[in-house]
Specification:
- By secondary structure, this protein is α+β, with helices and mostly antiparallel strands.
- It has one domain (7-194).
- The protein is built from 4 helices and 7 strands, in the order βαβββββααβα.
- Strands 1, 2, 3, 4, 5, 6 and 7 form a 7-stranded mixed β-sheet that branches.
Length: 195
Amino acid sequence: MPVPDRHAVVLYWLPLGAGGHCVRRSGRVFEALVARHEHRAGCDLYHSALEVRHGDERYTIEMAPVWSGAAADRGVVRRGAVGSRLLGRSVLFRYEVRRWRDGVIPDARQAVASPYQVSHDAGRAARILELVPLVPALTWGRDDAYTGEMWNSNSLTAWLLARTGHRMDTIGPPAGGRAPGWRAGLVVAARQAAD
């Protein structure tokens, strides 16, 4: 992997369920059902994460289940419910948004068509770091914002990139793949920009 610029926003596309979790199987079932409903062939599904370099500092930014992080200080800046607000009372049904200094992206070695440097602008890198705690804490897996798509980790990534002025028409999942939730992040970001 080439060393990113001193100021860089780097995007990772991780196959859904990389690392062998039950998420891989449930993701395949989900995609098969959606593809059948939409009368199309199934696609590979991807989860996204960001790495932001700002000067001598490096941060990883992603949304993950609360129970998936062993490190005590993993840069948690926001939490939300998974599935429903009622279920979110249990640690098993909560997610966290991480802005983790010197953090790791699990399964980064399995990334497809990435790492991809989307910008090398110091201002955009700094603005992403500022915005992470402000991402809407919508329910993961639901369409609370009425965007036509569920909210998830891809929504976080798309929201951050759109809110910081990146050209979103040039950024998307690897060929033949889909990133469920991506559009939800774009729609919420556009609404907020219009306010």
